[in-house]
């Protein structure tokens, strides 16, 4: 059995374990709110807030880094073409309708970790709150049934790497 099959099997087992939690319905309701916070428009608002308060360099870094993140995200999404849980698992339906067909990597999680990294660089006192929010975004995508755990782990890595690159190149 190859390593990808083993990872997929562990992923599916973990997914089912999370779906069987006693408070899953409450988690699903909360996940909708958390997930919406990472849809993207708030990132634009944040960049505009930086721009209008004299931090144009921060706004540019967000724009350039997020553009890199989205390009890599789309390349990975189209390259791996991993189906979503509802498309693979029998008798499972996700709780929301995903915006695209494939699940790997999680774009919501990638964007959240990108933003958490960037804003933490400028406001270190908010790091714990920002990274807690980013982790909750990743978990929300699993609880909503649109991602497997490794989709969110890779999203977190992608967002963090793109932020680190943006700071290394632009900052």
From TrEMBL:
<dbReference type="Pfam" id="PF01569">
    <property type="entry name" value="PAP2"/>
</dbReference>
<feature type="transmembrane region" description="Helical">
    <location>
        <begin position="112"/>
        <end position="133"/>
    </location>
</feature>
<protein>
    <recommendedName>
        <fullName>undecaprenyl-diphosphate phosphatase</fullName>
        <ecNumber>3.6.1.27</ecNumber>
    </recommendedName>
</protein>
<feature type="transmembrane region" description="Helical">
    <location>
        <begin position="30"/>
        <end position="52"/>
    </location>
</feature>
<dbReference type="InterPro" id="IPR000326">
    <property type="entry name" value="PAP2/HPO"/>
</dbReference>
<keyword id="KW-0378">Hydrolase</keyword>
<keyword id="KW-0472">Membrane</keyword>
<feature type="transmembrane region" description="Helical">
    <location>
        <begin position="153"/>
        <end position="170"/>
    </location>
</feature>
<dbReference type="InterPro" id="IPR036938">
    <property type="entry name" value="PAP2/HPO_sf"/>
</dbReference>
<keyword id="KW-1133">Transmembrane helix</keyword>
<keyword id="KW-0812">Transmembrane</keyword>
<keyword id="KW-1003">Cell membrane</keyword>
<feature type="transmembrane region" description="Helical">
    <location>
        <begin position="58"/>
        <end position="76"/>
    </location>
</feature>
<feature type="domain" description="Phosphatidic acid phosphatase type 2/haloperoxidase">
    <location>
        <begin position="55"/>
        <end position="167"/>
    </location>
</feature>
């Amino acid at each position: 059995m190859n390593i990808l099959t083993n990872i997929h099997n562990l992923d599916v087992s973990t997914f089912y374990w999370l779906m069987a939690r006693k408070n899953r319905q409450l988690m699903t309701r909360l996940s909708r709110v958390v997930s919406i916070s990472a849809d993207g428009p708030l990132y634009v608002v944040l960049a505009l807030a930086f721009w209008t308060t004299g931090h144009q360099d921060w706004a540019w870094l967000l724009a350039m880094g997020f553009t890199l993140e989205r390009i890599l995200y789309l390349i990975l999404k189209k390259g791996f073409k991993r189906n979503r849980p509802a498309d693979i698992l029998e008798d499972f339906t996700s709780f929301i309708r995903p915006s695209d067909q494939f699940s790997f990597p999680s774009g919501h999680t990638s964007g959240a970790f990108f933003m958490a990294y960037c804003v933490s660089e400028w406001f270190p006192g908010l790091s714990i709150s920002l990274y807690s929010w980013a982790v909750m975004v990743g978990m929300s995508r699993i609880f909503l049934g649109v991602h497997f755990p490794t989709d969110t782990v890779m999203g977190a890595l992608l967002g963090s790497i793109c932020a680190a690159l943006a700071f290394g190149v632009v900052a």
